Amino acid sequence: MSASTIERTARPRKSRTRSRNVNGRPALVISTLRPHQYDLRPACASLICPDCTTWVPITGIQARQQKLVPHDTGRAGKAAAVRCQGSNRLVDVDVAYEIWQQRLQDSGVETAARRPTTVLPKAFSPRTDQALRARAERTPAGRVADWNAVLPKVADVDVARRQVPAGHAPLDGSPVPMTTLHPQYPAC
Predict the structure, then answer these.
(1) Residue 168 pLDDT level (bands cut at 50, 70, 90)
(2) Nearest to 56 by CA among 79, 33, 26
(3) Which contacts qualify for 43-48: CB closer than 8 Å, 24 or more apart?
(4) What are the domain boundaries of the chain?
(5) Which of 36, 111, 147, 164 lies in the 20 to 30 Å Cα band around 15?
(6) What b-and-e string marks burial along 142-176, b requiring 16 or more CB atoms within 10 Å of the CB?
(7) Tens digit of each residue's pLDDT (9 = 90 or more) over 3-26
(8) Beta bridge partners of 72
(9) Alpha carbon distance 50, 166 (integer Å)
(10) 8 Å CB contact between 75 and 42
(11) Is 33 exposed, middle or buried (0-12, 13-18, 19+ CB in 10 A)?
């Protein structure tokens, strides 16, 4: 049986980073972050890097000294690999796992309490309520009668709109057409 013909694109790396390099910046204190910005589960202890806002594993979570894994900024395969300034930064884990879990649950409950569960209708003013009731009580015959009462006023406005105002006509340029133009296109 032959070996797999699929080529790997990335070099396999060690399961744990054992670099002795330490970032010169001050240690990142976990208690200053919000509970949803870090994860203290032993299997995948990680946090959001404040510099590049990506999730980065924390090495040595049960050791004496914890720090962020060296990581790059940008998206894999889409941007140039530039080392983040937060790489190898020391992390001060001063929150116990149980306290973090309780804070995370409390924040979820608090967020759910801020979101409304029912949509309440807007209260009507008495005038709006009266207009809505009158509209609901109107019949088609009543609407036709209202339209017939308005028609003479509409006709007067149309006649006034068609009249040319008195005054000087423009000296240069063609006169304004008073009829609607309907261009005719040749048949194809």
Answers:
(1) low
(2) 33
(3) 47/91
(4) 28-114, 126-161
(5) 36
(6) eeeeeeeeeeeeeeeeeeeeeeeeeeeeeeeeeee
(7) 556 655 555 555 555 667 888 889
(8) 83
(9) 73
(10) no
(11) middle
**pLDDT mean across residues, the chain:** 80
90 strand-pairing partners: 67
- For residue 175, the one-letter residue type is P
Euclidean distance between CA atoms 29 and 48, whole angstroms: 12
Encoded tokens for 70: 């060296």
Residue 78 CB-half CA count within 13 A? 4
What distances in angstroms separate CA 179 from CA 158, 161, 186, one per listed residue?
Answer: 14, 13, 22
Helices then strands (H, E): number in the chain?
Answer: 3, 8
Structure confidence by residue, pLDDT tens digits, 60-96? 877 788 888 888 877 767 777 788 888 888 999 898 8
**Residue 17, pLDDT score:** 53
